[in-house]
Here is the input.
Amino acid sequence: MQKLAEEAITSNVAVLQENGANNSSMVYLDSLNGDVLAYVGSINYFDEQIKGQNDMVQRPRQSGSSIKPLIYALALEKLGLSIDSPIYDIPFKIGPDKPNNADDKFE
Here is the structure.
């Protein structure tokens, strides 16, 4: 399993570089008991240019957009909405805050 994880990481270096990334990591867990089956902390531990000694698995990262599906699913559930429910992109205010879209437009 460890060998497969290492190959999965190293075989995608070109794709990472095309998208502006220079390193990657992976943890493969047994979903039944949580055991770590494979662990790759960096593409190349010995590559100083990408700081390969930094373990990317343990390095703190912002969740970014990867958490959005979880947040949206919880919101839909709590509001009693379904995937067919319209969600309007309109200006609104929550207390003193007025959230905006990245382009400051509403559609």
Remarks:
- The chain has one domain: 1-94.
